Amino acid sequence: NDMTPPTREERVEKLKGLGSSRKRVEDARFTQGKGNYVDDIKLPGMLHGDFVRSPYAHARVVSINAEAALALPGVVAVLTAKDLEPLSLHWMPTLAGDKQMVLADGKVLFQGQEVAFVVAEDRYIAADAVELVEVEYEELPVLVDPFEALQSDVVLREDLEPGADGAHGPRRHHNHIFLWEEGDKAATEQVIENAEVVVEEMVYYHRTHPCPLETCGSVASMDKVNGKLTLWGTFQAPHVVRTVASLLSGIEEHNIRVISPDIGGGFGNKVGVYPGYVCSIVASIVTGKPVKFIEDRMDNLMATAFARDYWMKGRISATKEGKITGLHCHVTADHGAFDACADPTKFPAGFFHICTGSYDIPVAYVGVDGVYTNKAPGGVAYRCSFRVTEAAYFIERMIEVLAMELNMDAAELRRINFIRKEQFPYTSALGWEYDSGDYHTAWDKALEAVDYKGLRAEQAERVEAFKRGETRKLLGIGLTHFTEIVGAGPVKNCDILGMGMFDSCEIRIHPTGSAVARLGTISQGQGHATTFAQILASETGIPADSITIEEGDTDTAPYGLGTYGSRSTPVAGAATALAGRKIRAKAQMIAAYLLEVHDNDVEWDVDRFVVKGAPERFKTIQEIAYAAYNQAIPGVEPGLEAVSYYDPPNMTYPFGAYICVMEIDVDTGEHEIRQFYALDDCGTRINPMVIEGQVHGGLTEALAIAMGQEIAYDDIGNCKTGTLMDFFIPTAWETPNYTTDFTETPSPHHPIGAKGVGESPNVGGVPAFSNAVHDAFRAFGLRQSHMPHDHWRIWKTANQLGLHG
Ligand code: PCD
């Protein structure tokens, strides 16, 4: 035999397991236009739905006349709240314990609100018929400012009993939703009152919107013969959608099949349940035909879940030497017309109380007031774990402002306040237990990589040159050290609509040694089919190329809470590793039997069990799988499958050090990003190439948000940014080059030590870009200006600082 057996290294290589930059298996279909998205689903006799939407931000609906629309050939039905009412579907529960109109019931509360659902034989007829529905409105006073809303006599939510408690406790005004508090208020106030140095600042994180390439949509098909409802849709949490659909409709859960096919980006936009989904289901039940609903871009930007809109008033105290002693934060949170925030039930402001960031702050307090206004509902985690981005932006701005007040270098101020390596696991003043971290190492590596000292010297020279009139460009160095918190559960703290936030993996090894694994999560572009196979390859010894990963079909996949909040790796990834270990435990018994030794006399080696001390005697995982199906093994059932449901003991806390170097033209307000350095620590890295792609994508979204993207309203509630002409999406032209780097501090409680990474670049990126803008003007006294830092706002800042001469 001339075949030399592969070396151990070659066998490891062949697996393409943990740590391998395996190419994404999904890309074969995505790069050839062969993905299968909701709008690709075409069923015989399928009808199409479109919405009549409110042009007003606040108005009474006096009458709806659908006669002309119904007379248009091809129009099948026009649904209004009156049609949904007998089914109790004219309102629906939100993820935040509030309720939301599915179709306007008596009045409308934001521009673009769904008023009637037109169903027609094709999409164009539906759109034409929408124009023919006559709605008479009576305008009401509009509230777009949350501070004003809390003072106003205008009652937005007439459906709520005045004075009655909301889902999160007492409401002190008819437009107030909740006050949520965490930390020790009295102690914090006392520390701040007696502190040597205190700074106070209002930090606004503007309203924006996730903007996936594919908008939201669904296809509902009610098969009246066998009583089964199939629902395809852009769902980041398909199992939760099934449960909610069952509870709302009364259709038993086994009779509902929810399928998330390929999803063209989620970014939190596809976590919630929207009126379009409900209307497509009702229309399918009413007409007996499949009904498709696909948003256009304006529908998406104006009516589906917004993000942020937090007014964060902070006070931070320190000693003269810069040791932080306390942090106080009050947030006025604009939730729009309905509280439809996507947060775990117990946390109406999500994980905002991670706002002590990477710093060892002895005492802190956070209070968040939720407020109704005449804006679209939502409040989703746009590439962030439930309000972590707001928290990171807040603390990273407060640190910069404090550094100014102390007349200190902001990198040094961070360094002296970081939680030290030996303090982990570290319990923060606001109650989180950070699992692991090594901030100083990451920080030093980052500062050295960009030659921080050199940059500061260059910046100082630039300021002098500017003052001498030799240049009109300033240099900003945007620093950020962020700490993320991802991987919800644990089930004991985290649930959504009562469903505990665990996740799952089920794996089946076929007789010839290849496998299929199914998970409760759902990829929207992250590359799960690539990376979860890598986890299993390292655990089971089956090459990743021989493992199919499936997600998103509730008839086949085990129950799970879905993909958002960077929870797939921390939760489903852990379930996957543990399912792989269950396979290995059974494989060990089979191998021992085949090798005629005791179970304890074999040991695992990459892709096989080997007899201890006799390396030539082994059984590969493929031989073991074959035997599992084809050989009677006493005391062992046939087959090789495993299921694991995983309830994480804690979240994971990825972190990173980002530095943005930006040139700013004082006269035009234009900026140029000269360098962006991003160091991420997400614990054990599964696929470095996928991680790099995630960081590039997240940074580009951060760039968009910090430098231009916003959902803006005028005084009467007109959405001014409902198209991509006005809503900024960076192209290759605006996007800078990024340098990525890493340190690797494993999570101590995750089976393979991995933390999430998908959101980190957005959480750390936004403050890095914004701090760069502020830092450019630091020498001229700028403390705080509001994002997005578009050219106009930067010009205005320069103007206000008197830099235009
Ligand atoms: N990884 C690795 N390693 C580690 C980690 C991680 O490798 N250590 C990888 C994994 O496997 C995947 C990724 O990476 O694949 C990611 O992951 P994560 O972090 O875990 O996450 P997930 O869960 O999976 O996902 C989620 C995220 C989010 S959240 C978001 S927004 C975004 C991100 O993801 N989205 C998206 N990214 C992305 N990408 C894409 N492409 N698309 C999309 O859509 Mo939210 O909450 O929803 O807002």
From TrEMBL:
Q: What GO molecular functions are on record for this protein?
A: anaerobic carbon-monoxide dehydrogenase activity; carbon-monoxide oxygenase activity; copper ion binding; iron ion binding; molybdenum ion binding
Q: What catalytic reaction does the record list?
A: CO + a quinone + H2O = a quinol + CO2
Which top EC class is given?
oxidoreductase
Region listing for Disordered, in residue ranges: 1-20
E.C. code: 1.2.5.3
Query: Could you tell me which residue ranges the Aldehyde oxidase/xanthine dehydrogenase a/b hammerhead domain spans?
Result: 32-141
The UniProt keywords, alphabetically, are:
Copper, Metal-binding, Molybdenum, Oxidoreductase
Q: Which InterPro entries match?
A: Ald_Oxase/Xan_DH_a/b, Ald_Oxase/Xan_DH_a/b_sf, Ald_Oxase/xanthine_DH-like, AldOxase/xan_DH_MoCoBD1, AldOxase/xan_DH_MoCoBD2, AldOxase/xan_DH_Mopterin-bd_sf, CO_Mo_DH_lsu
Q: Pfam families recorded for this chain?
A: Ald_Xan_dh_C, MoCoBD_1, MoCoBD_2
Compositional bias, Basic and acidic residues, is annotated for 7-16
**Cofactor(s) annotated in UniProt:** Cu(+); Mo-molybdopterin cytosine dinucleotide
Stated role = Catalyzes the oxidation of carbon monoxide to carbon dioxide.
Assembly and binders: Dimer of heterotrimers. Each heterotrimer consists of a large, a medium and a small subunit.
- PANTHER family named among the record's database cross-references: ALDEHYDE OXIDASE 1-RELATED, XANTHINE DEHYDROGENASE
Protein name according to UniProt: Carbon monoxide dehydrogenase large chain
Task: Specify the taxonomic lineage.
Answer: Bacteria, Pseudomonadati, Pseudomonadota, Alphaproteobacteria, Rhodobacterales
Name the gene that codes for it: coxL2
